[in-house]
Amino acid sequence: MALNRIEKLIESYLEGETSVAEENELKVYFSSTDVAQHLKHYQPLFSYFTQAKEEQFSREILLPTKKENNVQMWSIAASVVVLLGVGTFMYVQNTKADDFVACSPEDSPELALEQTQKALALVSEHLNTGIKSVSYINEYEESKDRIFK
Fold first, then answer.
1. Measured in Å, how far apart are the chain's first and last C-alpha atoms?
2. The whole model's pTM is what?
3. Angle (nearest 5°) at CA 112 between 106 and 115
4. Residue 16: left (phi > 0), alpha (psi -120 to 50), or beta?
């Protein structure tokens, strides 16, 4: 009779329908030495819970030091500065774009000429920036050639 009860309790346990008292009854049964042969494969499960309850955490927990907090604060501050710099750059670039007015030569040839000169000056400015960047590559190539001859 007790074996039938244990089997029903195991089914209920696996379905998640047991009470705490019934789970304790299963733990007591599986911690004893007279476990039925066909139920022996459940024994490690219930012995684990008993063993795990007795375990203690013995490692030391290291809390972050003030130096680590300072590094974190500096990295946040640097991120804010970068975001402000990018935002300012984008604002300035957008105000330059507002200088241009859509027009056609038929409307006002003088205005069209002025807008074309502004556009060409802007293209020239960006082109000169690109050429300066390429000059650094030439210096790098020359240095590389000297080193790896």
1. 93
2. 0.37
3. 160
4. left
Query: Greatest CA separation found in the chain?
Result: 108
Q: Summarize pLDDT for 99-129 with one digit per residue, the tens.
A: 666 666 667 778 778 888 888 888 888 888 8
Distance CA(93)–CA(87), nearest Å, equals 10
Query: What whole-number distance in Å separates Cα of residue 47 and Cα of residue 52?
Result: 9
How many helices (H) and strands (E) the chain has is answered by 5, 0
Place of tokens 């195991």: 10
Each domain of the chain, given as residue ranges in start order, spans: 2-54, 84-147
d(CA 9, CA 120): 86
Separation of alpha carbons 89 and 112, rounded Å? 28
